[in-house]
From TrEMBL:
Residue stretches spanning the membrane: 63-85, 91-118
Highest taxon of source: Bacteria
InterPro entries in alphabetical order: Phage_holin_3_6 (IPR009937)
Ranges for region Disordered: 1-22
Keywords, comma-separated and alphabetical: Membrane, Transmembrane, Transmembrane helix
Record protein name field: Phage holin family protein
Length: 155
């Protein structure tokens, strides 16, 4: 009979341990999900920060290119208006045009060409800049995936 009581005591103790393991497992699972969620959130924030820094660097580079293009176009317009305009005016006079007309027509034609080149540079980089978005697309996609993952873990 001592053996029977020992067996029953062991069964009772085993049952209590299983019940405690189940409670501990549920608690552990909740803690694990919480910890993983916190870590995931921190990683998402870091990803968003990194992605935003990359996007701002691209926007900054495009903006600098637009500025440089504008300055070059302006400087080019001045230099060309002074040098080439004089040469065009001379050619127009030799072609039979009145000197009074050739004096203003040469700089106008030269300035028009320079402004077209500078304008093309500005528009090219402006279009590239418009293609950039400041929305952290990778982070948004990753957060959607994480939301789905968390939903699956909790259901």
């Amino acid at each position: 009979m001592a053996n029977a009581e020992t067996y029953e005591q062991r069964q009772s103790t085993y049952g209590e341990e299983q019940e405690m393991d189940q409670h501990r497992s549920l608690g552990s699972l909740v803690k694990e999900i919480r910890d993983e969620s916190i870590e995931l959130f921190q990683q998402e924030v870091e990803l968003a920060r990194t992605e935003m820094m990359e996007k701002f660097a691209v926007v900054k580079d495009r903006t600098v290119s637009i500025g440089i293009g504008a300055v070059i176009a302006f400087a080019g317009a001045i230099v060309l208006l002074m040098g080439i305009a004089q040469a065009i005016s001379v050619v127009l006079v030799y072609a039979g045009m009145a000197a009074v007309v050739a004096t203003w027509l040469g700089p106008v034609l030269t300035g028009l060409v320079v402004l077209l080149v500078g304008g093309a540079m500005v528009m090219s980089n402006k279009n590239k800049l418009e293609e950039e978005t400041v929305v952290p697309e990778k982070t948004v996609q990753s957060m959607k995936e994480n939301k789905q993952w968390l939903k699956e873990k909790t259901t």
